[in-house]
Amino acid sequence: MAKQGAKTAVPRLRFPEFVGKPFREVHLKDLTSESITRNVDGLSTKSVMGVTKAEGIVPMEERLIASDIARYKVVQKDWFAYNPMRLNIGSIARWQGDSDILVSPDYVVFQCSKGLGSEIAPAYLDHFRQSGAWEKFVTEGGDGSVRVRIYYKDLARLQVTLPSLAEQKKIADCLTSLDEVIAVQGCKVEALKAHKRGLMQQLFPREGETRPRLRFPEFRDAPEWKWTTLNRVCDMQAGKFVSASEISDEPGEGTYSCYGGNGLRGFTKSFTHSGVFPLIGRQGALCGNVQFAKGEFHATEHALVATPQAGVNVTWLYYTLGKLELNKYATGQAQPGLSVDVLKSVECSVPATETEQKRIADCLSSLDTRITAEADLLATLKTHKQGLMQQLFPAPEATCA
């Protein structure tokens, strides 16, 4: 319980019917209990699950499952499970399926209490674990100096400012509804990206073919595409080295965007290019990554600047370079890199006219514009939820024991 004389923290936002209603200060151990129920009923390996931050509870890879799963722990509907070595990065989830599942014996499993006066709604706790108070506690708590281990006894010390069960359910319903909107929007973005990938497969000829499977009506009787090499389509040159001390994090008067192999690095007081160019990442994990740079900008030595040859549409070139999956041409073990000499001989197919190139480029650009708009809306919804949670749950400094 809260210390005598301590002021109970309250959220900044409450539903009208609960304004003025009291809260209770309790610890998680007063609201939950750990479960160590083992696989005595002989559930199969198909029931074995793992927990990830991004996807929640997912089937465990078969190679990671022990040959004997008798000691694996049972998880029932609305119970929580997590790896004590990964809780601090958010790998915890509530199981919402109807059938029991199993998790590794190394996992922590706990359930919400249902007794009068100590009841917490599982859905409310599920949202609360995404709050600032929870994050602050699990970041600072636990055992171990190298890898933090947070067992149930550690988590049980978390102090929770708890409203009535009715208010808990109202908060949970509100956030769950918003989660559903976010999920639908996320699916919409992924569907558009998948549509674009499929469209590109049809708008460009397959290897060894000279006609795409999908062609705009006005070009159906146009000449066949021609296969050539990248050196006949564009000129590729590495950017110019700039020291880290010359790159600022924020733009200022007289500064220009500075691009490396994986996007915007910062801003410099000089520029190497002016216009519109595709940039190819030439080193590291993002080797072969293609991006667009416009205006006056500085390209570092980690990017190859592709300048289209006469008769080549620059936007069509951007999409062509992206479709070619240039990373597969990287050489080197420790630090894979792209060589201009190697890329020059990479084969690609080109429409007979720049008009058809532009038509393809405009189509894909329009789709990219829509994808960006939908992705921005998704980001806005996620930001809205974060802001709403900050107001529906008390501030973290007031709720950590």
Walk me through what this model shows:
Its EC number is 3.1.21.-. It is an enzyme of class 3 (hydrolase). This protein has 401 residues and is an alpha+beta fold. Among the domains are: 16-163 and 394-398, DNA methylase specificity domains (Adenine-n6-DNA-methyltransferase TaqI, Chain A, domain 2, Alpha-Beta Complex), CATH 3.90.220; 226-350, Adenine-n6-DNA-methyltransferase TaqI, Chain A, domain 2, CATH 3.90.220. It is 28% helix and 21% strand. The protein has helices at residues 122-128, 132-140, 152-155, 165-203, 314-323, 340-344, 354-392; strands at residues 24-27, 32-34, 49-52, 56-59, 73-75, 80-82, 92-94, 101-103, 108-112, 159-162, 226-229, 234-238, 256-260, 263-268, 273-281, 290-299, 303-308, 347-350. It has a six-stranded mixed β-sheet, covered by helices on one side. A four-stranded antiparallel β-sheet has the order 2-9-6-7, covered by helices on one side.
Please specify the SSE layout and strand pairing.
Blueprint: E1 24-27, E2 32-34, E3 49-52, E4 56-59, E5 73-75, E6 80-82, E7 92-94, E8 101-103, E9 108-112, H1 122-128, H2 132-140, H3 152-155, E10 159-162, H4 165-203, E11 226-229, E12 234-238, E13 256-260, E14 263-268, E15 273-281, E16 290-299, E17 303-308, H5 314-323, H6 340-344, E18 347-350, H7 354-392
